[in-house]
Amino acid sequence: LSVSTTPAHLVRAVMEGAAFAIAHNIDIARQAGSALTELRAVGGPTQSELWCRIIANITGYPLAVLAENAGAPLGNALLAAAGIGLIDDPAAVARNAARVTRQFEPDPQLGDRYREHFAIYKQLYPQLKTQFAALAAITQSNED
């Protein structure tokens, strides 16, 4: 932060921080053997074109915004339907039900810049994890 930091800078920093967390989770999933080709997103943050572009650029994956905004409830309903035998393959039903409304491709040049920042994020995150928990505990105790 500096004297030239504006509220817009802070909002963008929050968006980038969330996108770094997504990228970090993707790295962990890849290490566990997952093979991603694109990201799919629903919900409030997808209303921001800037946020969608940031996520695509930081993760390096295309981001498809789906028309269905009730992603988790729909997934829960499909799993419940599979559980009681109404459908055999909930993943296939979800794929067929998903209608992409917007697609965001990563910008390789911006991705290169973000990769430098992401490397620092990955170094700092484990070091700060304990402090994050301590801050959360303080916040929780102040709310009680």
Which tags fit this structure?
about 140 residues; mainly alpha; Nucleotidyltransferase, domain 5; 5 helices; 3 strands; globular
Summarize the structure.
With 144 residues, this protein is mainly α. It is built from 5 helices and 3 strands. It has helices at 7-31, 49-59, 71-83, 90-97, 108-143; strands spanning 39-41, 63-66, 100-104.
Could you state the oligomeric state of the chains shown? single chain
Helix percentage:
55-70%
Proportion of strand residues: 5-15%
Strand order of the largest sheet: 1-2-3
Computed Rg: 18 Å
Average pLDDT, rounded to a whole number, is: 91
Biggest β-sheet strands, sense, barrel: 3 strands, mixed
In CATH terms, what is the fold-level topology of the domain at 7-62 and 106-143?
A: Nucleotidyltransferase, domain 5
CA-based shape = globular
Q: At the fourth CATH level, what is the homologous superfamily of the domain at 7-62 and 106-143?
A: ATPase, nucleotide binding domain
Q: Helical segment tally?
A: 5
Given helix and strand content, the structural type is mainly alpha
**CA-CA gap between termini:** 31 Å
Low-confidence stretches: none
Count the strands?
3
Which CATH class of the domain at 7-62 and 106-143?
Alpha Beta
CATH architecture classification of the domain at 7-62 and 106-143: 2-Layer Sandwich
Order of helices and strands: HEHEHHEH
